[in-house]
User: What shape does this take?
Amino acid sequence: MSKDFSNLLGGALANKSADELKVRERIVIRDDFKSLIPPLAQDELEQLESNILNEGVRDPLIIWPVGDTFVLVDGHNRFFVCQKHGLDFPFKKVDFKNDEDVRDWMVKNQLGRRNLSQEQQSYLRGLRYNREKSQGKRTDLTSDQNDLKSSSTSQLLASEYNVSEATIKRDGEFAAGVEAIAKGNPELKKSILLGKSKLTKQEVRLIGKGKATKPKNKSLKRTYTASEISGIAFNYINVERRPIETIMSIIGFNQSEDSAIEFFTKWNQSIKNQNK
Assistant: This one.
């Protein structure tokens, strides 16, 4: 009887191990979810790697069953370390309603962590504010009524995170600016959230508010002569003191799509707009 039980138990454990292996092999990473995870600085990633190698993975990774796959929701950095060293890890399956439910959970979960920089806290609070103030917006309400909903959202979040209502609204602008920047320059987003960018929070917020975007195409349709471009470039060298990455974000310059001529013409137009 004891031998039969041992065989049964051994078989059950073997099946469980095989099932867990199948799950681990079917974990997928979605870039849109991963982008919500604040980046770790290099020393933080190295410390995490050392902890895992010495102590194993203490907190289970959160995965979302979708069809035959399992979408990674929480534990991206732990997953990276385990993949690198061929280590097993605990996981927990969680059923979410949809993508929006996942994003809401991820933002709230990240905000519960203690090792966030000021930029990361502001970004996550802003993401939550922007998402929650827009959820449930009704087309049959006046703009004043929707503004009231937005105000109540900022009040609730301000109380929850022990900051001012104005801070929450600024966080919303900052988050919008970071997301706009990420579309053309994901690495700059990472730099901003790590506090290593030369862009100020005010400059990022202006981008989020739409006050530092690409100039209207109409103003760029005219043809500039070589002499005019040379003059603009000479003026740029003489008067511009801001870091080039700051200028590129403010004027909406995309290195992979725009030419050097477009950079100078857009910069010139932005200076004219500022002086109006």
